[in-house]
Amino acid sequence: MGVCHDNGWGRLLSGQRWGEAEGLTWILVLSISRAVFNYGPNSGGFWDEYYFTVSGERVDEWLQNWLHNPELVKHGVVDDALLHRMEMMLMMIDSNQPGNLDRAAMMLELFLYELVVQVEQTQAGHRGTFTLKVIEDLARSIYVEQQPEEIADRHHISVSTLRRIVHEHSGYPLNEFIHRLKIAEAKNLLLNTEMSVKELAEALGYQDMFYFSRVFKRVTGISPSGYRKRGGSS
Which of 53, 68, 129, 140 is 20 to 30 A from 225, alpha carbon to alpha carbon? Predict the structure, then answer.
């Protein structure tokens, strides 16, 4: 485990996977076979370094249950409280007293678990925010005829990732989800405007009115004109 000062840097390299960390950083190495580790500091910088090794059945349980992908660098926020706990833990290890070593082991497990949970929550929050951004973009774009490649490029993702995001969010394939967004807007237009079925179909990007009508009926169970006549009840 290492802690670097603000002007330090470090690199962790394992096969094809590597990452760089700047500023205050903790590094954990857990039995990664054939891994190569390159540490700083860079020119003019310095590390405040502490190293110790943990092993045994408990570490295997961590890896199995919650400490996943140990070959990847984890980016977390280490505040003063966590730093104080880290220093206390290292002091207990340095004391080499059996009782202190047991306490240090318990502190280490809690310390790592809290960092892992923090990282996972941050990543989940970022994923959720990004998903909502993509879905809101699709909802705003129902009057624009565009290809999946254009949507994906706008968000700097692949088409397959776009399709996965939409399916995980809605349960529908991308094209079906877009159809349903457009049909929801068509229902609003049928009830609140004087636009003909042909006009609103074209406005929503359906050049073939009859195709639009088939999609509308498949989704709602009623034709566009029938929906309008019934005042929205289907």
Answer: 140
Q: Do residues 11 and 120 share a domain?
A: yes
What does the pLDDT look like over 55-75, one tens digit per residue? 777 788 878 877 777 766 666
Give the residue numbers spanning the domain of 35: 2-125
| Shared domain check, 36 and 7 | yes
Query: What's the CATH number where 200 sits?
Result: 1.10.10.60
**What's the rounded Cα separation, in Å, for the pair 209 and 206?**
7
Q: How far is CA 171 from CA 22, 158, 177, 219, in A?
A: 39, 19, 8, 15
Pairwise CA distance, residues 85 & 89, whole Å: 6
What total of structural domains would you count in the chain? 2
Amino acid type, 8: G
- DSSP per-residue codes, 1-30: -EEE-TT-EEEEEETTEEEEEESS------
